[in-house]
Design a protein that fits this description.
The protein has about 290 residues and is α/β, with parallel strands linked by helices. It has a seven-stranded parallel β-sheet with strand order 3-2-1-4-5-6-8, sandwiched between helices. Strands 7-9 form a two-stranded parallel ribbon. The chain has helices at about 10-20, 55-60, 75-85, 105-120, 140-145, 165-175, 195-205, 215-225, 230-240, 250-255, 265-270, 270-285; strands at about 1-5, 25-30, 40-45, 65, 90, 125-130, 150, 180-185, 210-215.
Amino acid sequence: MILVTGATGNVGSELVEALLGTGQRVRALVRNPGDAALPPGAEPAGGDLDRPESLTEAFDGVRRVFLLPGYEDMPGLLARARRAGVERIVLLTGGSAALEDMTNAVSRYMTLSERAVRASGLPWTVLRPRSFMSNALRWLPQLEAGDVVRVPFAGVRTAAVDPFDIAAVAARALLDDGHDGLIHDVTGPQALLPADQVAVLAGVLGRDLRCEGLTDAEARAEMEARMPARYVDAFFRFFADGTLDESRVHPTVREVTGRPPRTFEQWANAHADAFRIAQDASTLCGRH
């Protein structure tokens, strides 16, 4: 039995599908098991990762765990997993864990999560993906309103990765030998500017889209509307101050899965329906 935390998220949902596709028994950790939209064959389990004592049933019979970072008592959570008989942990963090910057809120929780896994006594693998291609879904409200996409950090290139590929690497790390004690940096095949992504999306949708950069003040205001200020500060340090470089392309997806990572165009085609709904809404509103 494999426990997938964050089972309805960008990576977790793809991982549940990938594991079920290989015939694995999958338990999906969700807050509300009765309401979770899971694929057939996935076993829902309730629990709160900030309360390790709530996970007794979720860990029952589990031997491998895909774990998200940043919970209040990572050492306690991992100790409970070990006592339950878990034999392997695959932890998802991010590139900022390598900075070990304890003054940066994002780098701090990534770093502390990795340290807890290393100290747990369990065999572990860490995945450090860069920016997700699925972040482009945040543009949907703008695309409903018109053809201009306004973005923060418009001059920053990232080798963004499809969550499908992160899940594929995670599946192999969970199922195959040879990954224990390794850190896998997971990226897409090329480093793109936001404007490059918008241009690709325009081609996929057959729509004349334009990308504009937000000022730092505009970006900060927009970001603070959807996340705590300490995380906004962290991202400004990464991408405005340049403390984190996500432009480097790593060969991990090909090395681990035997195939190249998906391009942004492939991701956009796979999710075109979501963007076309926004396009239809824009047309109905008379703005496109």
